[in-house]
Amino acid sequence: MNTLFSRLSIRFRLLIGFGLMSSLLFAVVMVSWWTLNHVQSNAKQIIDMYEPQVDRMTRVELLMVKISLEARHAILSAKDPTELHAAMERIGKDRRRLVELIHETEANLSTDIGRDIMKNIREADDVFWRLSLQVVGHAQTGQVAAAYALLTTDLVPARNRQLDHIGAQKEWQRQLMNQALADANQTIAQVKMVLAAVVTGILVLISFMLMRLINSMIRPLTSLLNTIVEVEHSGDYTKRVSVVGEDEVGRTAAAFDRMMEIVESRTNELARNREQLEEKVEQRTAELSRAVTSAKAANEAKSRFLATMSHELRTPMNGVLGMAQLLLSGPVDAKKTQDHARTILQSGQSLLTLLNDILDLSKIESGTQTLGAGMVNPVELLLNTQALFANNAMAKGLKLSVQWNGPHGRRYRGDANRLQQMLSNLTNNAIKFTAMGEVRIEATELNQVDGSAGVEWAVQDSGMGIPLQKMPLLFQPFSQVDDSTTRQYGGTGLGLSIVKSLAQLMGGEVGVESQEGEGARFWIRLRLDVMTDAVDLSELDTGHRTGLMPQDSSQQMSGRVLVVEDNRVNQQVICAMLNQLGFEVIAVDNGQLAVERVMQEADAISAILMDVQMPVLDGYEATRQIRDWESFQGRSALPIIAVTADAFIEDQARCRDAGMDQFLPKPIKLSALSKVLGAFQTDQADRSTRP
């Protein structure tokens, strides 16, 4: 029952409690009201029962007095018998009514005592009436004295006794009525006392039940409040409310427990996230610290690089400008002129090498560096590298050797030019940092799997070696072992970075093995496709033969070349080279003039050297207009050779898209210029002699 009651809502419990208590109180009140009404009804019935009897007895008494007085008056005042007889007839009527009233009163009596009294009254009335008749008889016969004596001695006492009986009857009835009323009043008083006691008990019971009900609602609320305060002060979200029930408080407690579970879960999750965040913050802080350190190191390296670059640029520039000033200062004999010119050439080549390194690094960092696919002959590559640095090694008294550790006649598919560049960088560094001893260049085939082989290219020296803590910096851009290295040996610190980037571009890796004071061994490991069948070799040979064939730069050529160049110095250099090769030269300053000159003298022009960056009309648009004019005129296309300092692959593609035939990067080498123009002249000669 308690469980069922506890499932009810507080509102329903209050309604049920107040309903039950109100019903109980109503029932008690109704029972008390019915009891009082019943007692009052009984009292009224008693009054209704006795009052008519008392009234009838009073009427009997009055009627007896009337009869007695009338009889006495008739007897005493009657003048003749006739008058007395008439008076007695009237009295007889009253007496008959009296008898009827006595019989009626006696019939309504419920007690023997009352009936006995009425019997006595009836008998007394009979006696009184007989005496009255006797007195009347004496009076009629003239016996007045006898009648009067009978009247005074017998009739009046008889009537008095009759009245006494009636008075006794009335008194007895009044006593019965008073006793009944007293009993009714006592019953009413008792009922009122019982009702007061019952109502008081019910009120006490209601108060007790209300206290129990309120306590049953307040106790869980207090428990809930205590738990909330405890959680608020302690922060312990594992606390739960020990309240069971399905009423509003029970549901509130259950909802609070669920909320505590959610808060506990989210608090735990927040704590975990906070710990993870702190770990991440520590990790990111460490990474940021490393990044800041790395950035500072990179900035310092770039600062050192700029200082070094300034030195590396100014050193060959000093050779160029100094020797040029000496040539211009006065008459110089032929030998000194050649020496000065050779120094200028070497200084210019140094500048070009430096610019090429910077260009390579820029391409690598921008992701525009591309690789060629040709034949790689490891023995030839090693011997070429040895030949390039033989004089440098000999000048320092170093032994420069090469070694191939692999199958005889092995060929690979790859970019031989970039491999040559990588080996040259490593060999140059080895010779630079080796004071005595030997530098060995070697290549080893490590393994062969599914038509490809792992090949290691290595350069080992007996130089100063590298400290262990400095090795991680070796392959970073702009970095060298320390600043004293730059001051003592020169260099920009780009070579090893370029080697690493090219190796990664080829899908390989680089590394170094060194101990300070015992030399170093730098290696490059690549996986290259092995060329084993004759088809591959023939394709490569054909590829090498295809294109522009080399020409002897000393061979004299003929024809007229249109030079389109806005820079006067470059224009003079190109014109001088063309004159030395035997060409006549026409020079203009922009593309618009070139288009007009072609339209005027197309038959007299053998080729066009076109700069691309010019005012008025650039080389790209000038070439397009020339090609459009040639197409419209139905003429054969003139050879147009791009001459530009923009040496990126996309620049070459843009030149081809504009309609140019060949590409010469600045600074122009005389041999390259001779090769390109000689190829075009050979091609034109073949077409002219072809039947």
Characterization of the model:
- This protein has helices at 2-7, 10-77, 81-108, 112-140, 144-234, 248-329, 334-366, 378-395, 416-432, 483-489, 495-505, 534-545, 568-581, 591-601, 619-633, 649-658, 670-689, and strands at residues 374-376, 399-405, 411-414, 438-449, 452-461, 509-514, 520-531, 560-564, 584-588, 607-611, 640-644, 662-665.
- It is an alpha/beta fold and 691 residues long.
- It has 4 domains: 2-216, Four Helix Bundle (Hemerythrin (Met), subunit A) (Up-down Bundle), CATH 1.20.120.30; 265-369, Orthogonal Bundle (Helix Hairpins), CATH 1.10.287.130; 371-545, Histidine kinase-like ATPase, C-terminal domain (Heat Shock Protein 90); 560-689, Rossmann fold.
- Helix 9 runs antiparallel to helix 11.
- The protein is built from 17 helices and 12 strands.
- Strands 1, 2, 3, 4, 5, 6 and 7 form a 7-stranded mixed beta sheet that branches. Strands 9-8-10-11-12 form a 5-stranded parallel beta sheet, sandwiched between helices.
- 68% of the residues lie in helices and 11% in strands.
Note the main attributes of this structure.
691 residues, alpha/beta, Four Helix Bundle (Hemerythrin (Met), subunit A), Helix Hairpins, Heat Shock Protein 90, 7-stranded mixed beta sheet, 5-stranded parallel beta sheet, 17 helices, 12 strands, 68% helix, rod-shaped
Task: Describe this structure in a few short sentences.
With 691 residues, this protein is α/β, with parallel strands linked by helices.
Into how many domains do the coordinates divide? Answer: 4
- List the total number of helices: 17
Query: Regions with pLDDT < 50 over 5+ consecutive residues?
Result: 483-490, 534-554
Question: In CATH terms, what is the architecture of the largest domain?
Answer: Up-down Bundle
Shape: rod-shaped
Query: What class would the helix/strand composition place it in?
Result: alpha/beta
CATH-defined fold name of the largest domain = Four Helix Bundle (Hemerythrin (Met), subunit A)
CATH domain class name of the largest domain: Mainly Alpha
Terminal Cα span: 124 Å
What integer value in Å does the Rg equal? 74 Å
Mean pLDDT: 77
Residue share in helix:
55-70%
Helix and strand sequence: HHHHHHHEHEEHEEHHEEHEHEHEHEHEH
